[in-house]
Amino acid sequence: MLLIFDCDGVLVDSEPLACKVDADVLTDLGLPYTADDIARQFVGKSMKDMVARIEADHACRLPDDFAEQINRALFARFETDLQSIAGVREAILSLPYPRCVASSSVPERIALSLRVTGLADLFDNVFSATQVARGKPAPDLFLHAARQMGVSPEECLVIEDSPTGVQAALAADMRVIGFTGGGHCGPEHADTLRQAGASIIIERMAELKDAVLASA
To answer: Under a CB-based contact definition with an 8 Å cutoff, are residues 159 and 2 in contact?
Structure first.
């Protein structure tokens, strides 16, 4: 069995920081968003998909360097403020299965996140939505990860915190565990993941080993 971990909100508690930065940059550009707006509409989606949605919703064109503005501000925050999800390192090391990361974020952000939080040594294989045509909720990224790891979709178990990620895993014919322990997850988040199709939900990484073994 291959374990496929999302990064933001599963390995690192980045979503509150990212939502605040996104909202601040957009508001400065004359498009008022709150961090809650960003969390509700865009968590789990790629930058490309977020830009397309914002431009369609507001009938506008974002600056060509919008992604660079976001990343510059966000990476600075990550260097000082980013934390790993509580207990995630111990949970990963308790499991004997091969593993990889498959994230909607750009490779530079994933690498920075893993380095700053001291998780980089746990993952030799990291995949980004920039490597495929369609981001989550399409299955492309997870299928790409499985192919690169030499594993069939049926042998994969995905750990995801977003409904789009859960939908992508199920579209790839993979099993999925929903995680609700990120700082952006409110009390309704478990129901949101269940509605997306996750049949197993965990709130703390201490529960991961039992959930994985139950799915094996």
So the answer is: no
* Span 2-50, pLDDT tens digits: 999 999 999 999 989 999 999 999 999 999 999 989 988 888 777 888 9
- By CB atoms closer than 10 A (0-12, 13-18, 19+), residue 158 is buried
pLDDT score at 84:
98
What's the token pair of residue 94? 């308790």
* Triad 146, 50, 124: Cα angle to 5°: 30
For residue range 157-181, what is the model confidence (pLDDT) as tens digits? 999 999 999 999 999 999 999 999 9
Rounded CA-CA distance 181/183 in Å is 7
pLDDT tens digits, 40-65 = 888 877 788 899 999 999 999 999 99
CA angle 95, 101, 106 (to 5 degrees): 160
| Predicted pLDDT of residue 22 | 94
Token look-up 């374990």 returns 3
Total number of residues shown for the chain = 216
